[in-house]
# Entry
Amino acid sequence: MKSPFPRRAGSPVQRRIAVVALLAGLIAPLAACGGLSANDNDKSSVSETYTDLRTGKPESARDKAVLDALPESVRSTYAGFWHATRVGPNPYADWKPSQAPWKFCYSSAYQGNSWRQEGLAVAKDIVAQLDKKGLVDGPLIVSDANNNASLQATQLTTMVQKGCDVILVMQPPTVGLCKAFDAAQKAGALVVVMQTGTDCTNVVQSDFGAYDAGRTAAEWLVDKVGKTKDTIVMCDGIPGVAAAEARQAGASDTFKKAGLKVDHITGQWTPSTIKSQMLRYLSTHQGAIAGVWDGGVCAVPVTQAFQQADRDLPPVTGFEGACSWLASWKQTGSESFGFAGGAGQGVNEAFKVALRMLAGQKPKHNTLLYPLVQIDGSNVDEYYKPGMKLSSGCNAQPASGDSAPTAYYDDLFTGTGTPATFDAGLADLPVK
# Structure
């Protein structure tokens, strides 16, 4: 199919030679550069400097000023943003996108679980759709760093050398890749980091509002348990990880405001560890437990621990919409609350951001947070499928296909360029 967009000048080989030459000139200065850092000056405007990543810390005057300056339509989603990310000016404000067809690349910090595999499958499907419209230059280039930051930095450099126009980066480490991102940006590549916070300010970030999601799940639990004197148990993720800490901060603030007693177990986002920690807690705490808040992957192993300990099952929230959680919900008949938060929807939202920028629109800020779709007793039947089991490794997807409607981003971008579109296809992902 003939592309509706003009092609870039020069052959692919010529373009790659030019990129490699540019990178060669960047190596020396980057060796002395630690990437962009926080608060390069004392100006308070969100459009002129970046906030600090302040995981686990209370809101500062600067954080409040930035939050108040954001469009009202997105403000609740950005609540507590400092726990997981930094907000400031668009690092691509002066960037001019190349003309189609574009080469898309996918850099994953780790591909060793079904969640990550889902994200890559969705990315491949979207690129295939764009290819049919004549908008793609070659197959999707994919790398897996196996949780090695140095390797991922090298892989990112290789992607730039291969002429990648857009590099989608799935859950990189919070620190360690700023130089690689800086080189990619200077070479003209658009880097979009997905599903995590980063200390680097030379990329565009696409993620859901983690604090807001943690808070919303906690509010549901507060409504369920009422003014109880019994204990709420928070099942926390990996200590120090921004995504985990942000969710936990949202929940903790909510429970504190409600005056509820809270205990913690640390499950490390690992089902076997979660179940072991919950059983240990139950063996030493014989008092009534009002409910359990899930910070990720907790719902099923927590439920199994209660069953194994022959204790009454209180309300237990979910989080990322795991198919196993929905199967457990149906088996126990105990109502729950969670989100459609699989990797597929995260990739879907990141592509929407990238395609707006390729069309000439510009984000107002470096970080674009979106809300997650909620799953509760009123709509669970839209998400549960008969093939879902406790052993399933899939995740529920937004029934509408999108976490956020396209119009959600209108207040976060300037410009009127019309982006290419695609069918998210999330509802067609297999139940495993």
Remarks:
- Residues 2 and 149 are 39 Å apart (CA to CA).
- The domain at 210-340 is CATH 3.40.50.2300 (Rossmann fold).
- The first strand starts at residue 104 and ends at 108.
